[in-house]
Structure prediction request, 770 residues.
Amino acid sequence: MRALPGLLGARAPMPRLLLLLQCLLAAARPSSADGSAPDSPFTSPPLREEMMANNFSLESRNISLNGSPSLIANKWEVILVSFERKKERRGTFNFKVPELHGKNKPLISYVGDSTVLTCKCQNCFPFKWTWYSSNGSVKVPVGVQMNKYVINGTYANETKLKIIQLLEEDGGSYWCHALFQLGESEEHIELVVLSYLVPLKPFLAIVAEVVLLVATILLCEKYTQKKKKHSDEGKEFEQIEQLKSDDSNGIENNVPRHRKNESLGQ
Amino acid sequence: MPPTPSAPPVHPPPDGGWGWIVVAAAFISIGFSYAFPKAVTVFFKEIQQIFHTTYSEIAWISSIMLAVMYAGGRIFESFLIFTSLRIQCSFTQSGSFLGPVSSVLVNKYGSRPVVIAGGLLCCLGMVLASFSSSVVQLYLTMGFITGLGLAFNLQPALTIIGKYFYRKRPMANGLAMAGSPVFLSSLAPFNQYLFNTFGWKGSFLILGSLLLNACVAGSLMRPLGPNQTTSKSKSKTGKTEDDSSPKKIKTKKSAWEKVNKYLDFSLFKHRGFLIYLSGNVIMFLGFFAPIIFLAPYAKDQGIDEYSAAFLLSVMAFVDMFARPSVGLIANSKYIRPRIQYFFSFAIMFNGVCHLLCPLAQDYTSLVLYAVFFGLGFGSVSSVLFETLMDLVGAPRFSSAVGLVTIVECGPVLLGPPLAGKLVDLTGEYKYMYMSCGAIVVAASVWLLIGNAINYRLLAKERKEENARQKTRESEPLSKSKYSEDVNVKVSNAQSVTSERETNI
Prediction:
């Protein structure tokens, strides 16, 4: 079973909605069909149609609804009752305004930049999109000032609000509003505008830390090298003294030393 | 380890002490080099959207041309992966093509100045990136400048480990390479936090300052100078000989030798190096694709986005612990002499993992696969550079790693897109996993055979060398007196040389 939205005049202040509820019966038995709106807000005239069918083939019955969108019920039920009123089949049509998808995370931008806020919905064709900005609870429609805001969308199911030359006051809540035949739906997008100083502070902090560490490490190294040089010079002096005494021993001592080297070298 | 007669005298590696601080510094440098490109690709989708909507559309032309190359169902996925790969590629490209530049600089100036310069370049690249207004500018600043800086971090870090360690080198390598998964698992969520708080511009600025910490790592990499006592005593006893030899060498230097001084191209005649290079080229064709496609594969099996991302975290976590542990194992007395075989087996383990991956249909088996994959990936990465050091020796390692990265650039860049194309053609991920597994197993078999032959030939050469030395030892004592004087004065050198022999 499905519901087909009908055509309607564009931009009529209170467009009339023509909905076609199509119900296909795959049963091979004669049956009667009832259309009723269990949740209808109004009482008369009851939108009921009784149809009798006697054939053994696929049946389809159409119910056309005429009324203003806001008065159309959200739920329609089709009840098929068998001839002897022994069996019943029900089908429900749920009408719902399509949901919009924005961004669940706030959009972060910087002063002087431009940013684009997007709103889209799947498989829907709203006939009007509007943008509102709100600071607090008051929603103000976003005026299309030529040098500040540009509203466009490449497809019918999405809209884009481009804001150029951002200032800090431009931050806050933005609402994208879609108007459908059945009703309207909206989505909230948060825009945060930061100044350049905000990331600059951690940047400078980390750079300062790096410079400090590098300086500390290099200074420590120079200090330990100086110390080592002093102690090495002392050791060197001792070794030179030893050399002088060794040299005086002569060649006899070289032979055992040579053999020791050989055994270690293997 | 084959002796390198043409190499300058190796200063004895301390194998401890300040060396462990150098390992920590290398940990930081390697962590930045490997983890940073991967961690940053996390926000590319959003950045591309931002650029697409707020700035010009011209930048998309080249990306669209590439996307058109991939026909088929997963066009958006492969496009996304490829464009994020392109920025990663520009990291890898500058890292690989300019790897030899880094090697040349390390050969000439040592590790410390190069790493500090690298840190400064990275910072500059990111700061410029935060002011960019198109995707092309982003590629240039973040891709090339920062990529170059990261290359200047990677090679010196690996080289200096070889200079500071010999006996405990596999352990040191394993510890240093563990930097990559640690940094990846901490940078990725940190990046997300930065992005949510400061937007992409602020994040790039702050990431630039973070990369400056590589300079801190560089300042810790104290150069190993020659021992003061050695130089002074040599100048006393061997002055005449030292003066005559440089003169001889200077007249003989040809253009080839001059080039060789900066970047050792004679490595291409080195048997072990060629085996390593060919094996690695084959391996890298199928090495990275499984990681990149793990999350899409999981999503394809019906697993939700967050659990699929969790698989990668599991892999990184296991990788973190696998690297130092495998380094410890590789350092053991039994494995160290046969480390090339160990490397081949680690690669084979990886290959077998990928071959068995298509059997994983549900979430628990995929988690198990991720654990084993992490183990395999960690063990290969841990000994990847250790085996190269083992083959060519520490003095030539710097040039070797530069040459290896530039040659490996090809398969590393080609592998994932080819794998993506295979997925598009066949429509299933399992064929891609099986082919990657087959390629990796083939690489391991090649390395196994090649290294078996190499070990045998090396043993033969060593026997011949020993026989030659024995005939030389019966020569007059005068020559040996000079050499023994030097040996006595060089502190601890003798004990170190004997240890080196036993470890082989």
In short: Chain B touches chain A through 38 residues (CB under 8 Å). The radius of gyration of chain B is 24 Å.
